[in-house]
Amino acid sequence: TFWPDTAEQLAKSFWPGPLTIVLPKSKEIPDIVTAGGDTVGVRWPSHPFIQAVIRECGFPLAAPSANLSNSISPTNAEHVRKQLGSKLKLIVDGGQSQVGIESTVIDLCVRPPRVLRPGMIHEESLLAVIGEIQSPESRVQSPAGGLRSPGLLRKHYSPKAKLTLLSWRETAELNFQLSTFNFEPSKVHIIAHTHIPSGEGLGGVSVIPHDAEAFARAIYAELHRCDEAGAELIVVEALPDSIEWRAIADRLNRAAAD
Fold first, then answer.
1. Which domain holds residue 76?
2. Which of 89, 128, 164, 165 is 20 to 30 Å from the Cα of 227, by its Cα?
3. pLDDT level of residue 142 (50, 70, 90 thresholds)
4. pTM across the whole model
5. Residue 102's closest CA among 76, 143, 65?
């Protein structure tokens, strides 16, 4: 593919790491890799195992995410085994994901470059390197129109249970809001970061630190755990409205969509 100066600047600043760069597809790349599209996403990951695999292969690898479409992304090998184990001959356990949510995706086929999917490499960091970008602004695409990036469907990253985001300060306030849902309290699981409810009568309460990077690392694993525990309603405490939390909010808002 054509490798512009902007791609070189981004690669030098953020690779290896969770940044996917969308570029025009060259004729050498089969259509099956890009689902018939005219662009391709390129990334150099930070995990030493996959770096070694790519070096030994001597050519780029085309690799989809290791989860069923629209389901919660895996953050460890056990998540992959439970979703896809019967379909795979080999699963390599590389340990727990160190970022947690999916990579930032930036499209260099348009001017100025456009963030298609927010991630833990924030827009401000990209802007500092390349000077100008278009913000994602909660982009949604229809599969019929061809997706420029994974993660652009209105509903995505979803657990089996219904997911909603709520704000509360006291347990009584949370319980009042829960009373408006038609779920048995024992089937309701809470994921909190600041205001920790008592959990009396509920299916479970888990706490993730009020830190965006720690929350990103842990949230998918918690959603998997809630599903495995038989949750029918997962309530996540509403997130702060700041740049550090924007990508996490994007994932949870899509997971909560009907």
1. 5-145
2. 89
3. very low
4. 0.90
5. 65
